[in-house]
Design brief:
Length: about 110
């Protein structure tokens, strides 16, 4: 089995047709420092524990997720405590965000 915990950079910009992200995606990437989500403008749903426990990530830019409607339990769980900045789009209109509180960190719009 491949151990992904050593990955420090991820580029998802090529996933332009992706509409939903399932549970546990990119969870426990302990050394992740950088992620490019720029191609995910069609994503409407993010499942449980997305990017949970990514301990070295300091900034996340969610602004490209302009059609995001729902995030589930555990979104950025543990990771949120380490983040210094979250960038979101003013156009984002989440209809359902299970337990995520954007007010916990510096938000740049």
């Amino acid at each position: 089995m491949f151990d992904c915990r050593s990955i420090n950079d991820i580029n998802l910009s090529c996933l332009i047709k992706l509409k939903s992200i399932g549970n546990d995606f990119l969870q426990r990437l302990f050394n992740l420092e950088s992620i490019n989500l720029s191609g995910l403008s069609n994503v409407k749903f993010i499942g449980k524990h997305f990017m949970a426990d990514c301990r070295k990530l300091r900034t996340i830019d969610l602004s490209s997720l302009s059609n995001l409607e729902s995030i589930q339990k555990g979104f950025l769980h543990i990771t949120i405590d380490k983040l210094e900045k979250i960038i979101i789009s003013k156009q984002q209109s989440l209809k359902h965000r299970y337990d995520f509180d954007f007010s916990r960190k510096e938000i740049k719009e």
